[in-house]
From TrEMBL:
One of its GO terms (cellular component) is membrane. This is Uncharacterized protein. Coiled coil: none annotated. Belongs to the major facilitator superfamily. Phosphate:H(+) symporter (TC 2.A.1.9) family.
């Protein structure tokens, strides 16, 4: 057992290096696009939005490849190498003068030359190589780490908690170091050094990972839960003209009795996937053949698993808007900080380092909740803290307050900008006025992240924990894409003619306060939809529980 516990530092190490590398690039990327590539503030933010969304969305692809074809070991090894190559290309592009436009100065903004197609092409190759690598790593590292523990062994099962605690701790440490040390290196020493160190860390992580190859435990590919969902949908569609039998005993079921799920009436069209047709039965008993095609015939339990996943989709859809707040903190909020006074004595705080308050707030929120709120809540109500639905609702509510505060602060910053000469690079207003919005965003994410993770894992069937985790990651991805769409829509609606463009090239001439207010209104509407979906889900869950208890009592009497 000790042999496998000694492998824990390898997985913790590769995740730490990945966090340092990825977040070291992500939290300060918008200033690179604005200051080095000379893109507009809106375009820079859109690039970051799309990259962040693609990175999380590709975790679905990484999960499918790991579960169905490559296995977790090869998925990590291949995609980590792709990630490292991407960071290496990015570092090289900052060194070679032909791969980025010449520098310009705030006093002569009209002489700034925007990056050409070749320079942007190399940049995008590097950036999306990192996104591909990140998708494969995130989908497999934690799962491959848990594969090293035998859950039937009580000692190893206890050690797994140690692994998760250290894993999450070093993710947070990596994010904090990226937002402080790495951003400082990029802004003061040079981007080439900052990105070069990111590349070196990823190659170091790969070497460490490969060093444990002979000691790892490996599990066979069992197929992706996403494929299982598709099988039910295809089978139900192919039998759409058939009528569902009145008795559940006439439907196909091959799952072990202890893991079977009782049939429910909701989404009954999917029950057609379990109808046994001619050619799918053997003998006269009406039982299915030994190996029926899963694309033509699915068990009642498999169908019910898909139904459970469908029931959580309204909750999934109404949590996407929250992650638009996260997207603003690493883009527009960083650009705001770059225009403001950031000095502490003689030390100049890098604009990207303000995400330290964001990540720090997450850790403080989780610590206070774990050590103070949960014990008090337990004494008062007998429950172990808030339910996952309440956590997500609280996170959505805090997101509205975050955007309202951000709009107020931005309104004050813009009033100072209008009173100053447009050539001034630093406005005489403290960037630390942005701390409350970073802190609020972090507090909201602390509740939303843990609430979503808890909800999607506990409310999904045992056989589909992987796909439920992927669903959680897609809310983050789609949050970035929604942000990108909102920027495009706002630019289209407010730009041109006599109208005031809310998101022009220069952030000091924008109406970012109105944009923040618009996001606050959208989140308020979304909160209302979420509450309605949460009540519907709670009611359906109670109805299913009552039906299962009724079926169990009927069976016991029979």
């Amino acid at each position: 057992m000790q042999l496998f516990v000694n492998l824990v530092p390898i997985f913790v190490g590769i995740e730490l290096c990945e966090r340092l590398s990825t977040m070291g690039i992500a939290v300060n990327l918008v200033t690179y696009l604005d200051g080095t590539m000379h893109l507009s503030s809106a375009t820079s933010s859109t690039v970051v939005f799309n990259w962040g969304g693609t990175s999380f969305l590709l975790s679905l692809l990484g999960g499918i490849l790991a579960d169905s074809f490559l296995g977790r070991y090869w998925t990590i090894a291949i995609f980590a190498t792709i990630h490292a190559m991407g960071t290496c290309i990015l570092a090289i592009s900052t060194v070679l003068p032909n791969l980025h436009p010449p520098p310009c100065f705030p006093s002569t903004p009209r002489n700034c030359k925007e990056a050409n197609s070749l320079q942007m092409g190399v940049f995008f190759i590097a950036l999306y190589s990192i996104a591909v690598g990140l998708g494969g790593i995130k989908s497999s590292v934690s799962g491959f780490g848990t594969d090293q523990f035998d859950q039937k062994d009580e000692k190893e099962k206890a050690q797994m908690a140690y692994f998760f605690n250290r894993f999450y701790f070093f993710i947070s440490v990596g994010t904090l170091l990226a937002a402080t040390v790495f951003v400082y290196i990029q802004d003061t020493v040079g981007r080439s050094w900052g990105y070069g160190i990111c590349s070196a860390l990823m190659f170091l992580a790969i070497m460490g990972f490969i060093s444990g190859t002979r000691r790892y435990r490996y599990k066979k590919c069992v197929g992706s839960p996403i494929i299982h969902v598709l099988q039910v949908l295809v089978a139900a569609t192919s039998k759409r003209k058939l009528k569902v039998p009145s008795s559940v005993h006439l439907l196909y079921e091959n799952s072990p009795r202890e893991s079977r799920i009782c049939r429910t009436d909701q989404f009954c069209c999917l029950d057609k996937a379990a109808i046994i047709t001619t050619g799918e039965v053997s003998g006269t008993s009406g039982s299915a053949t030994a190996n029926p095609s899963p694309w033509k015939l699915c068990s009642v339990t498999r169908v019910e698993e898909v139904k459970m996943m469908i029931r959580i989709m309204p909750i999934w859809a109404t949590t996407i808007m929250f992650w638009t707040i996260h997207a603003q903190m690493i883009t527009f909020a960083v650009q705001q900080a770059a225009t403001m006074e950031r000095s502490i004595g003689k030390f100049q705080v890098p604009a990207g380092s303000f995400n330290f308050f964001f990540t720090g707030s997450i850790l403080i929120t989780l610590g206070v909740y774990d050590r103070l709120v949960m014990p008090l809540w337990s004494k008062r109500n007998g429950n172990q803290g808030f339910t996952s639905l309440k956590k997500m609702g609280l996170g959505l509510f805090i997101s509205i307050i975050t955007m309202v505060v951000a709009a107020i602060v931005e309104s004050r910053r813009l009033s100072v900008a209008r009173a100053m000469n447009s050539s001034v690079s630093t406005l005489p207003i403290s960037a630390f006025l942005l701390v409350p919005q970073f802190a609020l965003a972090g507090a909201g994410e602390g509740f939303m992240y843990t609430g979503q993770l808890d909800f999607f894992i506990t409310q999904s069937p045992k056989g589909m924990k992987a796909i439920s985790t992927s669903l959680f990651l897609t809310t983050i991805a789609l949050g970035f894409f929604v942000s990108s769409a909102l920027v495009a829509i706002v630019k289209k609606v407010t730009g041109g003619g006599a109208r005031h463009n809310w998101l022009p090239h220069n952030i000091n001439n924008s109406r970012l306060d109105c944009f923040y207010g618009f996001i606050a209104v959208l989140n308020a509407v979304n909160l209302g939809l979420y509450l309605a979906c949460a009540m519907w889900y709670r009611r359906k869950l109670d109805e299913d529980t009552q039906k299962m208890e009724s079926d169990t009592n009927f069976s016991s009497r029979g």
